[in-house]
Amino acid sequence: MNLESRKIRLVMELRSAGITDARVVAALETTPREEFVPETFRDRAYDNVALPIGHEQTISQPLVVARMTQALEPQWNARILEVGTGSGYHATVLARIFRRVYTIERHRRLLKAAEARLTALGITNVTTRAGDGTLGWPEAAPFQRIVVTAAAIDIPPVLTGQLAPGGIMVLPMGHAADQQRLMRVRRTDEGLETEDLGPIRFVPLVEGFPEP
Ligand code: SAH
């Protein structure tokens, strides 16, 4: 099967798994995932699985990217912060749906590779930074949306502090990989409202100085 037919199969899988937001489906359909995985995994770029990208990190499973993006209740006008750029795949998907994307990665080498991909794809509405994403991006805050693509132990208060009124943050939470939950946090007039959106599996969010 060639990549194009594999992509069609993936899009059908996303739809039957409850991805009903047309913008989300279109964003995944128009993002060439084969450009974000190592050469050896190119054939599997449209399999619905996470794949290794080096430094013990992974590019997220397409259904997980789609679920998280849909849970963000996309709005073109919104500015979004992503913590955990990784391969740059999810940032590229977000760039097709949100006006402006800010993304932070603690591994400089992963970030460099992600930046090169964004440039090659001609994406101009993503701003990148090497650093500890648990500190957020104070100069660009507040954000209408925040997505964390590594598992936190608790809801990071610094990040909710950078969420605009009415804003939404989506993040995987939990210690052990098999006990994580996808959480949605909403900033309302009454305070923070959290919802459990079901099980999920992610690499851990690591606090502290960036890796070289
Ligand atoms: N969104 C990525 C996948 C993320 S994997 C993609 O589409 O490919 C999780 C990423 O979070 C890893 O690259 C890891 O290095 C990064 N990470 C973990 N803790 C972090 C932190 N505190 N700040 C920034 N990035 C972090």
Description:
Strand 6, helix 6 (157-161) and strand 7 form a beta-alpha-beta unit. The chain has 6 helices and 9 strands. The model has no long low-confidence stretch (mean pLDDT 95). The longest helix is centred in the N-terminal third of the chain and has 14 residues, at 3-16. It has one domain: Rossmann fold (3-Layer(aba) Sandwich). The chain is globular, with a radius of gyration of 16 Å. The protein is of the alpha/beta class. The strands form 2 sheets. Strands 5-4-3-6-7-8-9 form a 7-stranded mixed beta sheet. Strands 1-2 form a two-stranded antiparallel sheet. The protein binds S-adenosyl-L-homocysteine (SAH). S-adenosyl-L-homocysteine binds next to strand 2, helix 4 and strand 4.
Primary descriptors:
212 residues; binds S-adenosyl-L-homocysteine; two-stranded antiparallel ribbon; 27% helix; Rossmann fold; alpha/beta; 7-stranded mixed β-sheet
CATH architecture: 3-Layer(aba) Sandwich
The strand count comes to 9
Uncertain stretches: none
| CATH topology-level name | Rossmann fold
Q: Strand content of the residues, in percent?
A: 25-35%
Mean pLDDT: 95
**Biggest sheet details:** 7 strands, mixed
Oligomeric status of the shown chains?
single chain
Instruction: State the CATH superfamily name.
Output: Vaccinia Virus protein VP39
CATH class assignment:
Alpha Beta
Name every ligand kind in the structure: S-adenosyl-L-homocysteine
How many helical stretches?
Answer: 6
